[in-house]
Design brief:
The complex is a heterodimer of chains A (478) and B (526).
Chain A (H helix, E strand, L loop, with lengths): L8 H19 L8 H19 L4 E3 L3 E3 L1 H28 L3 H20 L3 H19 L6 H32 L4 H10 L6 H17 L8 H8 L2 H26 L4 H24 L4 H22 L2 H28 L15 H4 L1 H15 L5 H16 L2 H27 L13 H19 L2 H9 L6
Antiparallel strand pairs in A: 1-2
Helix pairs in contact in A: 1-2, 1-4, 2-3, 3-4, 3-10, 3-13, 3-18, 4-5, 4-10, 5-6, 5-10, 6-8, 6-9, 7-10, 8-11, 9-10, 9-12, 10-12, 10-13, 11-12, 11-17, 12-13, 12-16, 12-17, 13-15, 13-16, 13-18, 13-19, 15-17, 15-18, 16-17, 16-18
Chain B lengths: L4 H18 L4 H29 L8 E9 L4 E7 L1 H20 L8 H20 L3 H10 L1 H11 L4 H34 L6 H6 L4 H18 L8 H8 L2 H26 L1 H27 L4 H22 L2 H32 L10 H4 L1 H15 L5 H16 L1 H26 L16 H19 L1 H22 L29
Antiparallel strand pairs in B: 1-2
Helix pairs in contact in B: 1-2, 1-4, 2-3, 2-4, 3-4, 3-11, 3-14, 3-19, 3-20, 4-5, 4-6, 4-11, 5-7, 6-7, 7-9, 7-10, 9-11, 9-12, 10-13, 11-12, 11-13, 11-14, 11-20, 12-13, 12-18, 13-14, 13-17, 13-18, 14-16, 14-17, 14-19, 14-20, 16-18, 16-19, 17-18, 17-19, 19-20
Classes of the chains: A mainly alpha (478), B mainly alpha (526).
């Protein structure tokens, strides 16, 4: 039987687009404008199309990549992330005079890595995908080569990321030593038949894997790189990596722990419980004191990682659907918020301090309204999607009996509302001292933000269909 | 399919708000049109609620005009709305006050008029939603969504410390309500363990068995959310800030409608859902309510700022409402509902009048006024009537509710009634004292000498308030008739669920032929 290639089609589409972007760049004369982002969009739409066709087919390639509904849902989310990120990147590239082809190619390769990470069913392939994704993102973080903060951020991100990779690899090695395989399904079977409590080796393997994942999803106390990296990177890149990396890493996290290591749940659930609580608390409390909007949103996305961990530890039929739904809404909302930051970014002035937002309502009423929608959704106000997503996560927690975690969750989300509202206060209620110079809004990027806002309302008011998709992906991995 | 009148109550203001966003032109050119459109929309909503009242069958305590559609079927969440006598009148009150609030800020709002009107209409929509929701999830959505427009109203169009007040308002209220969200989730989960399916349907949740231990925690979570909203002493500290800093329209809606959501929540959710825990906590709630009555009145007495005085008087008046609810007998609860309406009218009126004074003089300090009676006789006459209504003069609206509440409280525990009754006296003291300092005596401040009297627009604002105040005082049965069957049902349900509360203390109950749990009227009268 010839091996089926179906499961890797979405990834292949995106990779092809990335290669095309690179080739196009080499044919581009300096100063010539080329619709390279369009190429990327075509690739991503191809991936989306393939995702729709593969839905419910449970395709599998080489025994290590599975296009099951879980992976496909995340792939769909990643396609949305990719498309929105491409759309908001244009102004940044022009303003910073970035090499467009390289930028888009890196973004597309990173997306391909993310898709692979979401669909891989073998620890080594997951590691491979992790590296493909991470290397591209490290470079994207430092793509403003002449900016010291950007370079510093990239370097920090790279060093800590390398550490995390090493931990992860170590965890894989231990797992292999225990089971003789790196395939998730076989590991799961071997773990399930084991009698007696977990061995020290198993604890080590679990611990290293958790540390590796915790770095990538920016869980406290492995979050130190996040604020610097998010602040140093160009805002469009931050939008991309704060959502895409998190989505891919969480997908793999969920898959590894709920399929391969599910039999050991008793040993890891308490650790994840602690991580979740610490992440929610530190993310929100530290967010309160920030004066830079980018850092504030960096801490906010740490906090949101905590809610995702709550969904992971709850790990019932609610929990897995909740992870997926939360990832999707978080991705759309966060890209929106960072997109607004990207659009306000001026060549000589980044406009990324909270006080720079004073009076935005008068200059850019639509942009201010969009930002308000994104922030309120992040804060979990109905009828925005963020509310449904949080509600879903907390339902899972209550059902799993983690009432304490749910209480921490709702209280931290009240605290987070405080700092989201600080920006709203600035935009609407504070007159500008020195009128900030905001650039004009390009059409495509503006349209992408409007689409995000519409999606947020759609998911908030009529979530049924997407909730059902999220739920349908449950059965395929567990 | 019958016309979905309840849905239209929620949808119409939203449609109006979208229309306003489409009006072209800058502030100067669009403002007059925007104001008119908003006013017309809110009047249409009011007309609709009147129509609803006319068609409402007052003899039944059932939920009427019910609409029910699956919304998120996987979790048993439904779009499930309906009204009984209690929510019906609160809807009418909301729709009555919104146009007055718009009219009351006709000239005092002169920046971003369009956004102002949009937020008022969105707020109206969310408030309507709160009162008609019979699905707890839906209820929570409206409950939380309501905060956002109010936050903007206070924060953008408020007075000096508006930002502080708006953030305090939203954080306080949210902090209370998120725990209620968890309790709601817990209830749905209990329904799941009992029946195998999730449900947020209030009527189904009324019937599930909740152990006393669970009731204890659930009740606390619900009661905290509602106590902050009411606000019950000692959770009231957000209220004076929010009231004082809010623009007139914000204060009117805040005091007139939003505070009632707390007491409405107690009547509709906290007490019937968790009767045993409610019976356990009722004495504590009642004591807090009585403390609030007296404390609010005493603090109101020493306020130099009229708006703050009215705000603290709300703490006192809402204490009566909570006392009536805690008594859980027909008189007490009917009185509480009546007092909710009546407080909406009289306090709404007071805020409107303070707003008129503040529009003229740009100050709300009592000491800045004096002798207004000679300068603006009509305004002062209106002021007097509204003041007397707020005090509870027989023949005006305030009397009926307070009387019924005290009656109900007396049947339950005479000591509470005795302490609460001092609040009536105190309210006369602080209101009349304030009235005297503002309106009588010589004109002490030169700036007051040439103040204009009521303008036609202000007549249009104040006449309906006075008319309703008199109507509610003279014909209380008009309003009590639809309330009573619903109240009786809730009271009976409560006493079945909480047998530990001695029947005698609640007063003699007429044996009711109705089933204790409210049912959906299968055929709403049309």
């Amino acid at each position: 039987m010839t091996p089926s290639l179906n499961a890797i089609v979405p990834m292949a589409c995106v990779t092809a687009a990335g290669i095309a972007a690179m080739v196009a760049e080499s044919f581009r004369d300096p100063g010539e404008r080329m619709p390279i982002a369009g190429l990327g969009a075509v690739g991503l739409l191809g991936a989306a199309f393939a995702t729709v066709l593969l839905w419910n087919h449970n395709a599998s390639s080489f025994g290590v990549v599975a296009a099951d509904n879980f992976g496909l849902f995340v792939t769909g989310t990643l396609v949305v992330i990719g498309l929105l990120s491409l759309a908001i990147s244009g102004p940044t590239i022009e303003r910073e005079r970035l090499p467009g082809g390289e930028y888009y190619a890196l973004m597309l390769f990173a997306t391909a890595g993310m898709i692979l990470m979401a669909t891989a069913t073998d620890l080594l392939v997951i590691f491979l995908a992790l590296e493909v994704m991470s290397l591209a993102v490290y470079v994207l973080t430092g793509i403003r080569r002449d900016s010291p903060t950007s370079t510093e951020a990239a370097f920090k991100y790279f060093l800590l990321g390398a550490f995390a990779s090493a931990f992860f690899l170590y965890g894989i090695a231990f797992t292999y030593g225990l089971t003789g395989t790196t395939r998730l399904d076989r590991i799961g079977v071997l773990m399930a038949v084991q009698t007696g409590g977990p061995t020290p080796m198993q604890y080590l393997a679990l611990g290293f894997l958790i540390v590796g994942f915790a770095f990538k999803v920016a869980a406290v106390p492995f979050h130190m790189w996040t604020p610097d990296a998010y602040e140093g990177a160009p805002p469009a890149v931050t939008a991309f990596m704060s959502t895409g990396v998190k989505a891919a890493a969480f997908a793999a996290f969920v898959r590894v722990f709920l399929s391969a290591f599910e039999p050991l749940r008793g040993s890891w659930s308490e650790v994840i419980w602690l991580l979740a609580a610490a992440t929610m608390i530190v993310g929100t409390v530290a967010g309160v004191t920030q004066s830079s909007v980018k850092r504030m949103l960096a801490y906010s996305s740490i906090g949101h990682g905590g809610y995702l961990l709550v969904a992971l530890v709850s790990a019932n039929d609610f929990g897995k659907g909740a992870v997926l739904f939360y990832l999707l809404t978080y991705a759309i909302t966060n890209i929106g918020a960072f997109g607004v930051i990207a659009l306000l970014d001026n060549a000589d002035r980044p406009n990324d301090q909270v006080k720079d937002y004073a009076g935005l309502w008068n200059d850019h009423p639509v942009l201010a309204a969009l930002m308000t929608i994104f922030l309120l959704s992040l804060g979990g106000f109905p009828p925005m999607a963020g509310f449904i997503a949080k509600w879903y996560v907390f339902s899972a927690a209550v059902k799993a009996g983690y009432t304490g975690l749910a209480i921490i969750g709702v209280l931290t989300s009240v605290v987070s509302v405080f700092f989201y509202l600080r920006i709203v206060v600035m935009m609407y209620m504070t007159p500008a001292e020195t009128p900030a110079q905001f650039p004009a809004v390009p059409k495509i990027a503006g349209a992408a933000l409007v689409v995000s806002a519409i999606l947020i309302f759609y998911l908030g008011i009529l979530p049924t269909r997407v909730l059902e998709w999220a739920a349908a992906s449950i059965s395929t991995i567990f | 399919m019958p016309f979905p009148i309840l849905t239209s109550l929620v949808a119409l203001p939203v449609v109006g708000a979208i229309l306003l966003l489409l009006v072209r032109g800058d502030e100067e050119r669009s403002a007059p049109l925007v104001r008119k459109v908003a006013l017309i929309v809110s009047l249409l909503v009011f007309a609709e609620t009147l129509l609803l009242w006319m068609r409402f069958n007052p003899a039944s305590g059932d939920f009427q005009f019910v609409e029910r559609h699956a919304w998120i079927p996987a979790f048993g969440i439904e779009y499930f709305v309906g009204v009984d006598g209690i929510s019906l009148l609160l809807l009418v009150l909301t729709a009555f006050l919104t146009p007055l609030a718009l009219l009351g800020s006709w000239e005092s709002v002169h920046k971003q008029t369009r956004a102002f009107c949009v937020f008022v209409l969105l707020l109206e929509s969310a408030m309507m939603g709160v009162f008609i929701s019979l699905d707890l999830f839906l209820f929570y959505i409206f409950w939380d969504a309501m905060l956002v427009p109010m936050y903007f109203l206070i924060g953008i169009w408020g007075y000096e410390r508006r930002i502080y007040a708006s953030i305090k308002f939203i954080l306080y209220t949210m902090a209370g309500s998120v725990l209620m969200l968890l309790a709601i989730l817990g209830l749905a989960y209990l329904h799941y363990t009992a029946t195998g399916s999730y449900s947020f349907d209030l009527l189904k949740l009324y019937e599930i068995q909740v152990t006393p231990h669970q009731q204890f925690w659930f009740f606390l979570a619900f009661a905290l959310a509602f106590a902050i909203k009411v606000p019950l002493f000692p959770f009231h500290t957000w209220l004076p800030d929010a009231h004082v800093e809010a623009p007139t329209a914000g204060s009117v809606i805040l005091a007139g409608v939003m505070l009632k959501m707390g007491t409405y929540g107690l009547v509709r959710f906290a007490f019937p859902l968790f009767p045993e825990a409610a019976a356990y906590f009722a004495p504590a709630l009642a004591v807090l309510a009585v403390i609030g009555i007296i404390y609010g009145a005493l603090v109101a007495m020493v306020q130099p700022d009229m708006k703050k005085l009215v705000a603290y008087s709300s703490v006192s008046h809402l204490g009566f409402v909570v006392l009536g609810i805690a008594a859980m007998n027909t008189q007490g609860v009917s009185g509480a509902v009546y007092q909710m309406l009546s407080h909406g009218i009289s306090t709404g009126g007071l805020f409107l009048i303070v707003g008129m004074l503040s529009d003229r003089r740009h100050t709300r300090l009592i000491a800045e006024y004096g002798g207004l009676k000679k300068v603006t006789p009509h305004l002062v006459a209106a002021f007097l009537i509204v003041t007397l209504a707020s005090i509870g003069l027989p023949g005006l609206n305030g009397f009926v509710g307070e009387f019924l509440i005290l009656l109900g409280a007396f049947r339950w525990d005479p000591r509470l009634a005795a302490f609460a009754a001092t609040g009536v006296i105190l309210s006369a003291t602080y209101m009349l004292w304030m009235f005297q300092r503002v309106n009588y005596g010589p004109v002490t401040n030169e700036k007051n000498a040439a103040l204009p009297d009521l303008r036609p627009r202000e007549w249009a604002v104040i006449v309906p308030i006075i008319a309703v105040a008199i109507l509610m005082g003279v014909l209380p049965n008009l309003f009590l008739r639809p309330i009573e069957p619903s109240v009786e049902r809730i009271v009976n349900h409560f006493h079945q669920g909480a047998p530990s509360r001695i029947q005698a203390a609640a007063g003699p109950q007429s044996p009711s032929p109705q089933s204790p749990v409210p049912k959906v009227a299968s055929e709403a009268r049309r």
